[in-house]
Write a structure and sequence with these properties.
Elements lengths: L1 H9 L5 H12 L4 H11 L3 H5 L6 H21 L5 H6 L7 H4 L9 H6 L1
Amino acid sequence: MIQMWNHFVQMSNSRVVKQIFLWDRDLCTDNRSAEIKEICEVFCLEHEYNNLQLINVVTFKEFMLQKTKRTWHDTILSKPKLRTYRKVKTMPGPDDFRQYGLILQYPNSVQLLLL
């Protein structure tokens, strides 16, 4: 979505596609512009949205990763049944056996759920 935003922002104003994009942005109800606006509000990028500025994709990915980690950590702390899993797993992402493509001959029930 952010790359699409950057693409439209860089486009010439004389193009019909850009004019439709600007019209869509002015409407901003139940459309892609509304989704992008919501994303920008979550990540404090309202200035870029309001002024039709490019959004740095690398910085956006870092913001998104930090928010995901924070949400994951807060969620896992609120689940008492996952207290052992919390000790083993410290960051969101694939588990080791999934990351390296290992499939166990006799997987336990937790590993079956993760497959």
